[in-house]
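Allow me, if you will, to draw on your knowledge of protein folds for a short while. I have a record of one protein: its chain in single-letter code and its fold written as discrete structure tokens. The full record is reproduced below for your convenience:
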Amino acid sequence: MQVLSLFSEKEKAYHLYQSRQNALREETTKKNMLEQAERDITQAEQGKANAERATAQAKRETAEAMQQITEEKRQKAHLIKLLQDAGIDPKQP
């Protein structure tokens, strides 16, 4: 009977040990998953910030190009008016 009792105690200790090991593995897995999620969030935030900067830059460049086009149109209209005032038809070759 004592042998069975000793065997039973060793089996209980083994199962307890395995439970602890499993809990440690689960805890490590959860920790690693959380750290990876945090890295992913940081990377996504950086990507968003980069995209916002690129969008702002593109908007600035578009506004500058539109200003340049408007200025070129104004200058062209002014030159056409000067030619017309001088009696020159700018549409003739």
